[in-house]
């Protein structure tokens, strides 16, 4: 084993240790932080970042900007709640049911509109979200404008029902990590490559044998299913849902972490969520009592500043920054590119290629 | 090898191709000529399944492909270099080439085909890790051709390779195309506006006007044809 291989292994080990430490911090937070308010902010970060990752599969990876993700989340929440309250189903089973139903609805609705190109998808997604909200407001089966509540009772894992925020914290964290790994897997799969080529040039994708419509439908179905999972989590956590969950403003909120964090990266929504959600909560807690609405104004200023000066998001900036260089080279001891290439070459030679 | 008969196609209610018939034989370079709007690109899209023909037949080695999907047609060995290059600018050169082997039959022999493509275009090997959008126009066109070669064409369709390129680079690309036809037995269908260059490289040619084949013949004959001279060469 030569020095190059050793250097690459050492770097990979350092990277795993660093990521492990970050994860450990998140695992230990509820042990030391007892304030329900702070824990609530973390739960909010977890599910909003997950929702934003769902958006990013379409908006970031495929280049199809959806402005209706609150609708998938809302439909998932309703599907789960109604199955629990009307059919007495187990909440965990209701989650699977909600994902399947919402995935099917999204596939059926968007298949015809993906044959068209350009902004039509965005327009249909807005209309879809509002149509679903109006439908629920006017349907007594869905509880009209007064919404649906989930029963309270004693703590139970089977019923996914707790008085404390700690279990939701951990379930939310697991959901976030699971969906992150899924997105990472999709990015590196054939589907991920197909989606990226579609984002860049649909004609060229078709010329090399990729069916753009098929892959866009696959992306919207997966994205809607993840949003429905978030809806289930939200409903079980808040234990009450109403059509307000599906407003246009909520759809926009699902876009922000991805765009601020960096939509070109799977990690973008995580970074964006970790920064924007505490900021939004802080501004609300600190300033909204002084002058109603001032917190939203300040939030908007931050947003406009980021988008104006860092259009590729925080990660887009980080990837080319001195900070990354410092962390990579000094802290993680990342070897230069040539070393990776040499190792890669060695490995391929071993295969006889 | 490829025999197209009575091909008719268009977009929605608008018909572009009325009656297109032509033939490409093994190891041959065939030029399809015509001015802007004559229907050349629509013809390419109809042959490769990106536009569904409303009538006619596309026969490839005895198999009817007129109603097949573009993926199926690609797997049979009809690979195109689309008009305007259409490479994936934000992906690296290597990733672009990998995308040429997206479908199964070509994926398994990707490593070997990659070496062949690098052999033809050594510049691309040097730039493998670079984003494709940072290549020059000529290099991008080479990348588009190399990506098509990775797809193991039996018939390679080049749609306006001269578009926006310096004349000497066009020559390089046409040289590669004709050497593939002569040495590797790949048939080449060259769709061009630049009639002089196309006829210099092709064996035979067809002239499309208003969605119909107006003229056909050996390249030398077409180059001296009075109508072609008047209408396309301005002499």
Description:
The complex is a heterodimer of chains A (353) and B (235). Chain A is an all-alpha fold and 353 residues long. Chain A has 2 domains: 1-32 and 322-348, no CATH class; 36-311, ABC transporter involved in vitamin B12 uptake, BtuC (Orthogonal Bundle), CATH 1.10.3470. Helices cover 75% and strands 1% of the residues of chain A. Chain A is built from 15 helices and 2 strands. Chain A has helices at residues 3-32, 36-62, 69-87, 91-114, 120-137, 166-188, 190-200, 202-207, 212-238, 248-261, 268-287, 294-309, 313-318, 322-331, 337-351, and strands spanning 148-149, 240-241. Chain A has a two-stranded antiparallel ribbon. In chain A, 41% of the residues are buried. Chain B is built from 11 helices and 10 strands. With 235 residues, chain B is an alpha/beta fold. In chain B, a hairpin with a 2-residue loop joins strand 1 (2-11) and strand 2 (14-24). In chain B, strands 6-7-8-3-9-10 form a 6-stranded mixed sheet, with helices on both faces. Chain B is globular, with a radius of gyration of 17 Å. The N and C termini of chain B lie far apart (35 Å). In chain B, helix 3 runs parallel beside helix 7 and helix 5 runs antiparallel to helix 7. The interface between A and B is medium-sized, with 16 and 24 residues.
Give a count of the beta strands of chain B, DSSP E runs of length 2 or more: 10
In terms of quaternary structure, the protein is heterodimer
Q: What is the topology, as strand order, of the major beta sheet of chain B? A: 6-7-8-3-9-10
Q: Detail the poorly predicted runs of chain B.
A: none
On the 0-100 scale, what is the average pLDDT of chain B?
Answer: 90
Report how far apart the termini of chain B are: 35 Å
Computed CA radius of gyration of chain B, to the nearest angstrom: 17 Å
């Amino acid at each position: 084993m030569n020095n190059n291989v050793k250097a690459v292994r050492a770097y990979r080990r350092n990277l795993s240790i660093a990521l492990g430490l970050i994860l450990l911090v998140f695992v230990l937070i509820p042990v030391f932080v007892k304030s329900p308010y702070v824990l609530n902010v973390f739960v909010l970060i977890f599910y909003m970042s997950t929702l934003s990752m769902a958006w990013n599969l379409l908006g970031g990876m495929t280049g199809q900007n959806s402005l209706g993700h609150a609708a998938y989340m809302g439909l998932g929440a309703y599907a789960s709640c109604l199955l629990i309250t009307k059919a007495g189903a187990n909440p965990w089973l209701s989650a699977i049911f909600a994902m399947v139903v919402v995935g099917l609805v999204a596939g059926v609705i968007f298949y015809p509109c993906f044959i068209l190109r350009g902004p039509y998808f965005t327009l249909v997604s807005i209309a879809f979200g509002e149509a679903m909200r109006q439908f629920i407001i006017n349907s007594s089966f869905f509880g009209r404008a007064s919404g649906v509540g989930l029963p309270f009772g004693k703590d139970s894992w089977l019923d996914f029902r707790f008085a404390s925020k700690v279990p939701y914290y951990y379930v939310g964290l697991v959901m976030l990590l699971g969906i992150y790994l899924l997105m990472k897997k999709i990015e590196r799969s054939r589907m991920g490559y197909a989606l990226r080529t579609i984002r860049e040039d649909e004609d060229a994708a078709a010329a090399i044998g990729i069916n753009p419509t098929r892959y866009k439908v696959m992306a919207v179905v997966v994205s809607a299913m993840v949003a429905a999972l978030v809806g289930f989590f939200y409903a079980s956590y808040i234990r009450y849902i109403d059509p307000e969950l599906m407003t246009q403003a909520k759809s926009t909120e699902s876009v922000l972490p991805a765009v601020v964090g960096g939509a070109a990266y799977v990690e973008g929504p995580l970074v964006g969520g970790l920064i924007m959600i505490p900021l939004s909560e802080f501004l609300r807690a600190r300033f909204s009592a002084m002058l109603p609405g001032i917190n939203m104004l300040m939030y908007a200023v931050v947003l406009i500043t980021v988008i104006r000066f860092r259009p590729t998001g925080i990660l887009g900036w980080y990837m080319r920054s001195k900070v990354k260089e410092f962390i990579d080279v000094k802290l993680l001891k990342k070897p230069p590119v040539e070393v990776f290439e040499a190792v890669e070459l060695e490995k391929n030679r071993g295969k006889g290629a | 090898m490829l025999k197209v008969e009575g091909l008719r196609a268009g977009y929605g209610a608008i018909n572009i191709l009325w009656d297109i018939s032509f033939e490409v034989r093994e190891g041959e370079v065939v030029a399809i000529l015509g001015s802007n709007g004559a229907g050349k690109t629509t013809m390419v899209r109809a042959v490769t399944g990106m536009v569904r023909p409303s009538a006619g037949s596309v026969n490839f080695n005895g198999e009817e492909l007129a109603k097949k999907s573009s993926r199926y047609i690609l797997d049979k060995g009809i690979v195109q270099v689309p008009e305007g290059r259409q490479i994936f600018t934000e992906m690296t050169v290597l990733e672009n080439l990998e995308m040429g082997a997206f479908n199964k039959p070509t994926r398994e022999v990707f490593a070997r085909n990659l070496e062949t493509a690098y052999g033809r275009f050594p510049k691309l090997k040097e730039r493998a890790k670079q984003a494709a959008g940072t290549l020059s126009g000529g290099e991008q066109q080479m990348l588009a051709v190399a990506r098509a070669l990775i797809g193991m064409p039996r018939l390679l369709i080049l749609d306006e390779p001269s578009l926006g390129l310096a004349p000497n680079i066009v020559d390089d690309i046409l040289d590669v195309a004709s050497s593939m036809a002569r040495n590797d037995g790949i048939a080449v269908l060259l769709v061009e506006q630049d009639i002089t260059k196309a006829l210099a490289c092709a064996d035979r040619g067809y002239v499309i006007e208003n969605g119909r084949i107006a003229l056909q013949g050996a390249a030398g004959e077409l180059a001296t044809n009075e109508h072609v001279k008047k209408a396309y060469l301005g002499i």
